[in-house]
Amino acid sequence: VFCIALLVILIIVNLNGIDMFAKIQDVVAYGLVLSLVIMGFIGAFEIGTGQVVDQPAALSTNPVDVFSLVGLAFFLFLGSEYIIPVAKSTKNARKNIPLGLVLSLVIVCAMQIMMVFGMSNYTPWAELAASNAPHLLYGASLLGPVGTYWMVIVSCFAVISTVNTVISSLSYICAGMSKIGLLPEVFLKKNKKGAPYVGILMIGGFMIVVNATGLSSSDQLSFMILVGCVFWMVAYVVSNLNVLILRKRLPRAPRTYKVPGGPIIPIIGIVGNIFMIANISGDPATKMAIYAIDGVIFVLIAIYAVFWVRVKMKRALFKPVPLHEVMAMENDLYIPAHKEWAKNHPGEKPAQ
After folding, report:
1. At what angle do helices 134-143 and 18-44 cross, to 10 degrees?
2. pLDDT, tens digit, for every residue of 264-305?
3. Which pairs count as long-range contacts for 133-141, CB under 8 Å and 24+ apart, including other chains?
4. DSSP 8-state code for residue 309
5. What confidence tens digit (pLDDT) does each residue in 15-37 have?
6. What is the distance between the alpha carbons of residues 166 and 170, in angstroms, rounded to a whole number?
7. Coil, strand, or helix at residue 16?
8. Cα separation of 176 and 196, whole Å?
């Protein structure tokens, strides 16, 4: 009930435009990161009020055990790219967006390292493994009741930050895809605040259904995270392949940011993601179940893509869109102009 009520509030927040989204996000993101950094620092340097635990820092040094958890750890770094859909609303996007992406990954990495050292000093591994709320256990072990209440607030920050970002960014992504003809035009509709309300209501509604049906319960959560991670990893592989292909095909095309090091970073990204997919779980049955679900999702997406590109867009599959047309797609008149052309030239192929 609490989660559904929170979702309704965040849907309303996002319907009030990108400025309201940003104000909420600033508060919860800074509160979340600063709290975890402070609590991680307190635990890592053993200055908490709780009892320090004497236990080995590493549960296993077996590479197989470690690699099976890499995919789950990958989940901590997801979502930094969600800033891209709202890049046009930021100041000095050419500089601040790439800097923000890199800083966010570095900060999250440092923050989680501090938390791991803190947990090793204050929470027995056996209790941590058995707990359905390990973050609350750490808070209580570190600072007693104060730590519990503090971690409850941090948990609320984490939920609000994640949901707020997903609702906003995905709705703007859907609007952007609709703008270039990859999704139905209905996703382009905006309210008086400039918010793409169709995407916001659809994505928020889907989240409400997930909570109402119990699919977000703790028993299913880890498995769903791994399924989502594999989906994301495949998307990252495709993105890195896109970078390599576009650098070869359009080396002098205008771009807002160029990845340094030539092909090195994209290749590392591809290899790393494939490695994590191959080691997504130490249990063969769980791994195959994850692959099966993601496989079905990709087949459905492929069917939609083939139908949409060939029937709706009337384009050839795997044929590059000319650069000048891609740049024209940024103009709000792109779709109306094509509609007008199609109206005056029925049955003919649209001008490129």
Report:
1. 50
2. 999 999 999 999 999 888 888 999 999 999 999 999 999 999
3. 138/39, 138/43, 139/39, 140/50, 141/48, 141/50, 141/51, 141/53
4. I
5. 998 888 888 988 998 999 999 99
6. 6
7. coil
8. 10
Q: How far apart are CA 18 and CA 88, in angstroms?
A: 11
Helix (H, G, I), strand (E, B) or coil at 11: helix
Look up residue 59 and give its amino acid. Answer: L
Angle between helices 2-15 and 18-44 (to 10 degrees): 130
Which residue type does 247 have?
A: R
How far apart CA 61 and CA 122 sit, in angstroms, is: 21
Residue 227's alpha-carbon distances to 64, 67, 231, 297, in angstroms, are 20, 16, 6, 10
Both tokens of residue 323? 């650069």
| Residues 234 and 295: beta-carbon distance below 8 Å | no
Token pair of 281, please? 């779980």
pTM tops 0.85? no
Q: Which two tokens stand for residue 119?
A: 């947990």
Residue 40 neighbours by CB distance under 10 Å: 22
